Amino acid sequence: MEFLQQLGIEAENKGVSTGSSWFTGTGVKIDSYSPVDGTLIGSVFSAGATDYEAMMAQAGEAFKEWRMWPAPKRGEIVRQFGEALRVYKEPLGKLVSYEMGKSLQEGLGEVQEMIDICDFALGLSRQLYGLTMHSERPLHRMYEQWHPLGIVGIISAFNFPVAVWSWNTALAWVCGNVCVWKPSEKTPLCGIACQKIIAEVFAKNNVPEGVSCLIQGDRTVGELLSNDTRIPLVSATGSTRMGKALAAAVAARLGRSILELGGNNAIIISQHADLDMSLIGAAFGAVGTAGQRCTTTRRLIIHESVYDVFKAKLVNAYQQLSIGDPLDSKNHVGPLIDKDAVKMYLQSIEDCKAQGGHFVVEGGVLEGEGYQSGCYVKPCIAEVTNDLPVVQHETFAPILYLIKYKAIEEAIELQNGVPQGLSSAIMTVNMREAEQFLSQAGSDCGIANVNIGTSGAEIGGAFGGEKETGGGRESGSDAWKAYMRRQTNTINYSTKLPLAQGIQFNL
């Protein structure tokens, strides 16, 4: 395919890079099959222990030079990366769609997120502000400043194979860090493509080798990053199970982690909601990316007075969904990532039925022409209660649960009544309800929206969640501070040495 050639993707690819240098990893070969049609797109050779050590040594040397570049100059490099992404937007968006399975519109949208975070990071490079404080001692000055951490490890998931890496990397770079990226083994070629694009930019600007490192592999590579004391910060996106293991390993060495883990997101449909607008937010939130977003809408909490009407609208909308090749813009829903995901989808349906759930739109696996990969499934809807074990668990698939409520306080309690806390929303034109949902007694999620759905986030806001979602924040606002270390400085410009708190120490 032409877009593979444009991105420099070959049948077999080297799996370790420090920028312009590429190494054939000594680990196992990883084959990337497209969930769209089952085709083998390409392969990469994952890293072994010796490859990892060579890469880390190069990254450490690069940091010594990169941290001394002025932050605005680092921002200029990121700006050029954004310009390169504009050039490669179409082929990279197609690769994201083909390797991961999301619609082409979403694939292009993901690359646009990369461009947007580069623009944000460019401005940030001139705004890494500290504070000044008044000292209690005469002729003293106090202030805070921020310094880069060093090597930042990034572990990304298959569902956003390029955007989440860029959220971390663009900020980490302007803050003066170097980055080591382990992309998902389910989407390794997206990592190859991004590294080749940034390598072009770095080569033109004499950026030191090792500022951007790529390392392919399975969980063993992730464990190397988690346990390496040379990596002060590891940012990881994935399941709650993975995040708990990583957090324990990083904390054991007193390192830092940014965790973006599971979501079990709900939209409250109030009796005061605009139901037509709510339908769009609920349907896209539930079936977009085939339900494989961390912000996917998994629960609809619907007021009893509009429950039947809205359920009918939703069932009718699901009957109009077009499922097929995500590169075809006529289709609304593409495939799940692989057959293991299909098995989990089917198991969740069986669990839901066994626990008392009632399906108003049945699920199942699609077969026949156009579905030869075996990864296409039907989005489905079940009526449940919030306490069912299957509802409490995040299933990365297009299964939507309907739950009925009587009062807004009950709806908020249901919304909060799961272990995860990423994204939430309420559909209402009632100002009091909206404000109650956003208050201290409202949603306990990191993201709380009014009259928009749970999926999708703008670059300008900090992204992340609470509880089993991990508590991390990436992208906008002051998320940059996670990639730096704070230092308090006191300067004495007097001729004496007064001690704090008026302590006397005379010799």
Describe this structure in words.
The structure is a single chain. With 507 residues, the chain is an alpha/beta fold. The chain contains 15 helices and 24 strands. The strands form six sheets. A seven-stranded mixed β-sheet has the order 3-2-10-9-8-11-12, with helices on both faces. The protein has a seven-stranded mixed β-sheet with strand order 15-16-17-14-13-19-20, with helices on both faces. Helix 9 links the parallel strand 11 and strand 12. Helix 4 packs antiparallel against helix 7 and helix 5 packs parallel to helix 6. The protein is globular. The termini are far apart. The model has no long low-confidence stretch (mean pLDDT 97). This is aldehyde dehydrogenase (NAD(+)). InterPro entries: Ald_DH/histidinol_DH, Ald_DH_C, Ald_DH_CS_GLU, Ald_DH_N, Aldehyde_DH_dom, ALDH7A1-like. Homotetramer.
Major sheet: size, sense and barrel closure?
7 strands, mixed
Distance between the termini: 80 Å
Q: How many E-type strands? A: 24
Low-confidence stretches: none
Helix amount: 25-40%
The helix count comes to: 15
Mean pLDDT: 97
Strand order of the largest sheet: 3-2-10-9-8-11-12
Percentage beta strand = 15-25%
Rg calc: 24 Å
Family: Belongs to the aldehyde dehydrogenase family.
Organism: Limnovirga soli
Domain Aldehyde dehydrogenase: 22-488
GO molecular function, one term: aldehyde dehydrogenase (NAD+) activity
Write the layout of secondary structure elements.
Blueprint: H1 2-6, E1 12-14, E2 16-17, E3 22-23, E4 29-33, E5 40-45, H2 49-66, H3 71-87, H4 89-100, H5 104-124, E6 132-134, E7 140-148, E8 151-155, H6 163-174, E9 178-182, H7 188-204, E10 212-215, H8 219-227, E11 233-237, H9 240-252, E12 256-260, E13 265-269, H10 275-287, E14 297-303, H11 307-319, H12 339-354, E15 358-361, E16 380-383, H13 389-392, E17 399-405, H14 408-416, E18 420-421, E19 423-427, H15 431-438, E20 447-450, E21 462-463, E22 466-467, E23 474-475, E24 484-492
Parallel strand pairs: 1-5, 8-9, 8-11, 9-10, 11-12, 13-14, 13-19, 14-17, 16-17, 19-20
Antiparallel strand pairs: 2-3, 2-10, 4-5, 6-7, 7-24, 15-16, 18-22, 21-23
Helix pairs in contact: 3-5, 3-7, 4-5, 4-7, 5-6, 8-9, 10-11
